[in-house]
Amino acid sequence: xxxxxxxxxxxxxxxxxxxxxxxxxxxxxxxxDALAQPGGQCSEIYPKKPIYDIPGFPEIxxxxxxxxxLEQGKQFEPxxxxxxxxxxxxxxxxxxxxxxxxxxxxxxAPIVAIAGGLGSFExxxxxxxxxxxxxxxxxxxxxxxxxxxxxxxxVIAGGGDSALDWSIFLADIAxxxxxxxxxxxxxxxxxxxxxxxxxxxxxxxxxxxxxEVTALHGKDKLEAITVTIDGQEQVLExxxxxxxxxxxxxxxxxxxxxxxxxxxxxxxxxxxYQTNIPGVFAIGDVNTYQGKLKLILCxxxxxxxxxxxxxxxxxxxxxxxxxxxxxxxxxxxxxxRKEAPKAVVQSIN
Amino acid sequence: xxxxxxxxxDREGVIHQVVAPTDMAMNxxxxxxxxxxxxxxxxGGMAMCASCQCYILSKTDLPEKNEDEEAMLSExxxxxxxxxxxxxxxxxxxxxxxxxxxxxxx
Lengths: 349, 106
Prior knowledge:
The complex is a heterodimer of chains A (349) and B (106). Chain A has helices spanning 13-24, 41-44, 62-73, 131-134, 161-170, 190-201, 296-314, 325-328, and strands spanning 2-3, 6-9, 29-33, 50-51, 60-61, 79-82, 86-91, 97-101, 106-109, 111-114, 120-123, 153-157, 176-180, 205-208, 211-217, 224-229, 232-237, 240-243, 247-250, 261-262, 265-267, 280-282, 287-288, 330-331, 337-338. With 349 residues, chain A is of the alpha/beta class. Chain A has 2 domains: 2-121 and 248-338, FAD/NAD(P)-binding domain (3-Layer(bba) Sandwich), CATH 3.50.50.60; 125-245, 3-Layer(bba) Sandwich (FAD/NAD(P)-binding domain). In chain A, the strands form 8 sheets. A 5-stranded parallel beta sheet of chain A has the order 6-3-2-10-22, with helices on one face. Chain A has a 4-stranded mixed beta sheet with strand order 1-9-8-7, with no helix packed on it. In chain A, strands 14-13-12-18 form a 4-stranded parallel beta sheet. In chain A, α1 (13-24) runs parallel beside α3 (62-73). The radius of gyration of chain A is 24 Å and the shape is elongated. Chain B has 2 helices and 5 strands, in the order ββαβαββ. Chain B has a 5-stranded mixed beta sheet with strand order 2-1-5-3-4, covered by helices on one side. The radius of gyration of chain B is 12 Å and the shape is globular. The relative contact order of chain B is 0.30. Classes of the chains: A alpha/beta (349), B alpha+beta (106). The A-B interface holds A 41, 45-46, 49, 118, 124, 126-127, 158-160, 181-183, 185, 187, 245-246, 248-249 and B 42-43, 46, 48-49, 51, 67-68, 70-72, 74-75, 77, 106.
């Protein structure tokens, strides 16, 4: 069982900044995220795109903002459960919570802060009738262990970076790699596109465009697919089919946690961004209130106020006043200390 | 700059007549959100999610699709010949009388 003071669901910018604000109050944080790396949308959707409205940064790439936030909070030693989705929440008699992920990892904390953005990112599944029946039986939407495909025939569908990158990667592992895309053009890093072109010439990748996978066949497991090229159907034998059509966010299991939800967002009290369940807060894009703006900078503000309330719940009756980091410095949980250089007081004569 | 009139058919078939300003650098996705129509605009307008996909019903002359929009539509679902991403169509006077329908949610 992982124990912490504030359990943060969602490791996007708001969740990461919570680590820092909580750390100033000597509260420890642990973050759960469905994605394999921290950063949320900033790392998953637009890491190379600039953001212009982070105070103090005239321009910063979303990926760099993530990097900076991790750096800013690292002395407070946050824990991470990545690649797992928060599934259930149970309230214990003492008012604390146990949050369990889809992989069964349990987390215990007196405070839960949902910083889930638009929800957890889940693969977009193509609309092929019987695709569900082949999931984990030849069809996968995420490649977890490339070794599974060693000496197997693999069909990848998609036109973005992940389809290109995995086709290149698996070309050396699988016995046969076929890449299918609806258009002749791919949207990916230039060198990936070049590499696929090269591997196609070497007959290491079989490229079929413009085409679409329209049916799956097989008795107990996937054995073949139907590819539709210009209205003509063609059956192709394969062991694996990996559609890589990106990820889309879904509020997911949080929707069943008994929280007040309005239009896919969690209603909160703007006093401290607490939800209708005492001890459970919602901050950043996942919450809603009158006048809500889905901006990273608003998430930072919400995280800061929320931590003050969390402190009071965890330390009832214990007095505290806001301190300024310039004056007090920062004492990390790792023993480090950051502080403003002292002024030199010396007489000049 | 004047306002323009658009007709937006929602997923229940209800037609909404909306007035859109041409001087606020808005796009169709944003107009839908401003009128609280059920358009998610997940990626915020980067042509990276297709949650603002719509079908163009009128014969209005529209700006050509850019590379990003073409690429996203090539991966989206429920795509038809008249599909566009609302976030990539800027509101200009040229759009007066435009009629669109929201594509199904995915």
